[in-house]
């Protein structure tokens, strides 16, 4: 039963790896449509930027506070190491 589950998991990974390039292929019409959409978006962005530059801005906007991880980097490393060790032990148990 364990070997069957391992075989099914490997088969699923191979299927995903083989299907990804196939799904990523686009035909020429779709590529041209995407290119036209990008150009239209770029033109709209340039118009909006020009309109914004034309407006007088007499008040200074406050920059938003930055986020960030409030946890110490050593604790992140410890957690990552524990996950790696736990994953290795799980794989070892499944393959036995």
Structure described in brief:
The chain is mostly helical and 96 residues long.
Report on the structure:
- The chain is an all-alpha fold and 96 residues long.
- The protein contains 3 helices and no strands.
- The chain is 76% helix and 0% strand.
Cα radius of gyration in angstroms: 26 Å
Q: Give the CA-based shape.
A: flat
Main beta-sheet annotation: none
Oligomer: single chain
Strand content: under 5%
Given helix and strand content, the structural type is mainly alpha
N-C termini distance = 11 Å
Per DSSP, the total helix count is 3
Low-confidence stretches: none
Helix percentage range:
over 70%
Q: Give the beta-strand count.
A: 0
What average pLDDT do the residues reach? 79
- Element pattern in H and E: HHH
Secondary structure layout:
Blueprint: H1 2-24, H2 28-54, H3 73-95
Index terms:
96 residues
């Amino acid at each position: 039963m364990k070997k069957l589950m391992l075989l099914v998991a490997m088969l699923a990974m191979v299927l995903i790896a083989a299907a990804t390039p196939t799904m990523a292929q686009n035909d020429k019409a779709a590529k041209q449509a995407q290119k036209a959409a990008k150009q239209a978006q770029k033109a709209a962005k340039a118009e909006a930027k020009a309109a914004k530059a034309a407006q007088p801005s007499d008040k200074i906007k406050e920059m938003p506070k930055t986020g960030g991880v409030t946890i110490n980097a050593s604790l992140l490393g410890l957690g990552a190491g524990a996950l790696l060790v736990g994953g290795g032990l799980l794989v070892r148990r499944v393959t036995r």
